[in-house]
Design a protein that fits this description.
By secondary structure, the chain is mostly helical. It has one domain (3-249). 72% of the residues lie in helices and 7% in strands. The strands form three sheets. Strands 1-2 form a two-stranded antiparallel sheet. It has a two-stranded antiparallel ribbon with strand order 3-4. Helix 3 (43-72) packs across helix 5 and helix 4 (83-104) crosses helix 6. It starts with 9 loop residues before the first strand and ends with a helix. The chain crosses the membrane at residues 14-37, 49-71, 83-103, 115-136, 148-168, 180-201, 221-240. This is MHYT domain-containing protein. Keywords: Membrane, Transmembrane, Transmembrane helix. Residues 11-201 form the MHYT domain.
């Protein structure tokens, strides 16, 4: 069937807003946690900081945003999501963000490490997005516009380089909040460019295509609530530890 007969994706505005909010909160939390990477005095401290910031960025700012935004896409056919592939896409996001943070935050900060870390992180984010798209189970085939796929990858790489630069060059609350707002726009821009690249062409698979997938009318809101609560708890603990360190120095 030609692309002219593709199924239309109408985005739920409420879930789109939630996807942006969780991306901003995840970005802000990751920027706060990344402060501990260059100041770590032992390899153990450094890797704990890299892991925490990577989970906040990859799991909260990027993957949770992506999945909520995927659920925001309403179509005339039923859609469920393959759980192993969905979990795998989250792991890709977290691992790629950890790799980018570890590379950019090792030793003295320089542009070579920043670009290498940003490229690896951006390609990982791109892989996460299209793995997440592959997790969609529905009676339709997905066809991609190559130019838009490349554009989404370019946005992911640029956004990752910017995110890493911000993580190791900003300290003030105001600066971090402004940067998190911008990062939310960049992450959402990558996702929706990737969605624009996809056309969904109906096939004859019927309800059998949905077998074994997860779905739910409130799944997007549930992910938002759980992710927000976890990020808020991690952010609160991080800020309390920073305050305790400051008091010890005094």
């Amino acid at each position: 069937m030609p692309i002219d007969h593709a199924i239309q994706c109408i985005h739920d505005p409420f879930l789109v807003v939630l996807s942006y909010v969780v991306s901003v909160l995840g970005s802000f939390t990751a920027l706060q946690l990344a402060i501990a990477i260059p100041s770590a005095t032992t390899p153990g401290q450094r890797w704990r900081a890299v892991t925490a910031a990577g989970i906040a960025m990859g799991g909260g700012a990027i993957w949770a945003m992506h999945f909520i935004a995927m659920l925001a896409c309403k179509m005339d056919v039923a859609v469920t999501y393959d759980l192993p592939i969905t979990v795998g896409s989250a792991i890709i996001a977290v691992v790629s963000c950890m790799a980018g943070l570890a590379i950019a935050g090792s030793g003295l900060f320089n542009w070579g490490k920043l670009i290498l870390g940003g490229v690896l992180m951006g390609l990982g984010v791109t892989g996460m997005h299209y793995a997440g798209m592959a997790a969609m189970l529905m009676p339709a085939d997905t066809v991609y516009n190559t130019n838009l796929v490349l554009a989404s990858a370019a946005i992911a790489v640029v956004a990752s380089i910017v995110a890493l630069w911000l993580a190791f060059n900003l300290r003030g609350w105001g600066q971090m909040l402004g940067s998190a707002l911008v990062m939310g726009v960049a992450v959402c821009g990558m996702h929706y460019t990737g969605m624009l690249a996809a056309s969904f062409i109906p096939n004859k698979a019927g309800s059998a295509a949905l077998a074994g997938g997860i779905s739910g009318g409130y799944l997007g809101i549930g992910i938002f609530v759980v992710t927000t609560a976890l990020l808020a708890a991690v952010l609160t603990l991080s800020l309390l530890r920073q305050r305790q360190r400051a008091m010890v120095r005094i």
